[in-house]
Amino acid sequence: MREEGCRAVTCGDALTNGMRLAHADGTVVDVLENETSNGVSLELLNAFELTCGGSPVPIPLGAQRLLAFLSLRPDGVHRGAAAEQLWPDYPCHRAAANLRSALCQGRRACSVTLIDCVGQRLRLSSAVRVDVLEIRGSARQIVDGLAPPATDCETHIEELTRELLPGWSDEWLHLDRERWDQMRLYALEGLAQRLLAAQHYLPALQAALAATTIDPFRETAHRTVIDIHLAEGNVASAVRCYQDYEAYLQRELGVSPSRQMTDLLQELPRPPLDRRRQQSNMPTNTPVPTSAGLHGQAYGFRSRDTAATLSPRRQDGHRRP
Question: What angle is formed at CA 59 by the lines to CA 55 and CA 37, rounded to 5 degrees?
Fold first, then answer.
């Protein structure tokens, strides 16, 4: 709705649950929340974008923040709580004024109701489609095991790799972002496991690797990657993934992978006989290189097992016959 010719904008009552626009000629028009012919869509993943009828709608930053805040709280929120969380560094009266300004800007953005105002509660209109809510619903189905493996796995994986409003540093967004990250991590891991069980190795690996990108420290995603490599018979790739992850943990946190992860490689064959013979010719007082220790742990034996393969020497320095 264009601003010219509009002298007042008020919240609708409980009956219409929409907006009432009073024009200069005295005409009163009710805009109901079920008016969806214009197809209003709100994108929060990768970047903020409001579209109406397929065309982007420019909107001030204050209204953007309000729409994003309400879209992540489908049950609505009290006006005072919204003002306090959106403008925490402002006095109460200034935060309330900023909220009123954002509400006015949001109402004038397009011809369809964006925000429902009933009493002191604000809520995003049901006429607005929100991408993160739709994708989160699909992710919940994957986590609950209700959705069968999708034929278009690449689309699901791509959707789950999108970040929630990247670049926004608002304090109120931190918890919402963490919830989204945890949901998509579980969904990607669950999708990878189901695709692995169906022997669809490529999309399974893509889903698992996407999860490791979201949270490089998360071990369950790395275990899934190793499971996929072992299922394909790519033993070397599995060992390399283990070693890379172990080195990363040691470098960043000073911890080691769990026993669950090391057990994945317990049943792998030991190094070839000629390599073990070469190791047996090493002096006992030579420390085992770190890489050898990593190989030993990855193949299921400890450093003492590696030391046991070295032939003992007599005190005179000659090898026993």
Answer: 40
| pLDDT score recorded for residue 315 | 43
Q: Which amino acid is at 218?
A: R
Residue type at position 17: N
Q: How confident is the model at residue 19 (pLDDT cuts 50, 70, 90)?
A: very low
Taking the whole predicted model, whether its pTM rises above 0.90 is answered as no
Query: How far is it, in rounded angstroms, from Cα 169 to Cα 123?
Result: 23
CA dist., res. 320 & res. 307, Å (int): 17
Among 108, 109, 65, which Cα is nearest to 90's?
65
The CA–CA distances, whole Å, from 181 to 51, 53, 88, 166, 176 equal: 25, 30, 24, 12, 9
- pLDDT tens sequence across 166-207: 999 999 999 999 999 999 999 999 999 999 999 999 999 999
Instruction: For 67-109, write each residue's pLDDT tens digit.
Output: 999 999 999 999 999 999 999 999 999 999 999 999 999 888 8
> What's the number of CA atoms in the CB half-sphere (13 Å) around residue 146?
6
Three-class HEC string of 171-208: CCHHHHHHHHHHHHHHHHHHHHHHHHHCCCHHHHHHHH
**CA distances, 210 to each of 1, 109, 203, 222, 318 (Å):** 42, 36, 10, 10, 54
Q: In this structure, what token pair is assigned to residue 49?
A: 């974008």
CB within 8 Å of 200: residues ≥ 6 apart = 149, 153
Q: Name the amino acid, one letter, at 60.
A: P
